[in-house]
Amino acid sequence: MNNAPTEMGMSGQMMDCMGGMMMWGMGLVGLLVVALLVLGIAGLIKYLFVDARRRNDHG
């Protein structure tokens, strides 16, 4: 492996740009997954506690 400049030119810049976009995309997907997990867990907790409270009130 040598550090001599190659004849990549524009394709090298395109690969750098695509790598940056993929990094942003993965970060965005990660944030969406975390948000969905938090909302799902909050909904599950709400469902369980509200359901338990209703059963205690009526039973």
Give the SSE map.
Elements: H1 10-58
Structure, described:
With 59 residues, the protein is mostly helical. It starts with 9 loop residues before the first helix and ends with a helix. The mean pLDDT is 82. Helix content is 83%, strand content 0%. It has one helix spanning 10-58. The protein is rod-shaped.
Biggest sheet overview: none
Please mark out the parts with pLDDT under 50 across 5 or more consecutive residues, or reply none: none
- Total beta-strand segments: 0
Order of helices and strands: H
Number of helices: 1
What structural class do helix, strand and pairing data support? mainly alpha
**Mean pLDDT over the residues:** 82
Cα-atom radius of gyration: 25 Å
Instruction: Tell me, briefly, the overall form.
Output: rod-shaped
Beta-strand content estimate: under 5%
Task: Determine the N-to-C terminus distance.
Answer: 75 Å
What percentage of residues falls in helices of 4 or more residues? over 70%
Provide a short characterization of the protein structure.
The protein has one helix and no strands. The protein has 59 residues and is mostly helical.
Descriptors for this entry?
59 residues; single chain; 1 helix; mainly alpha
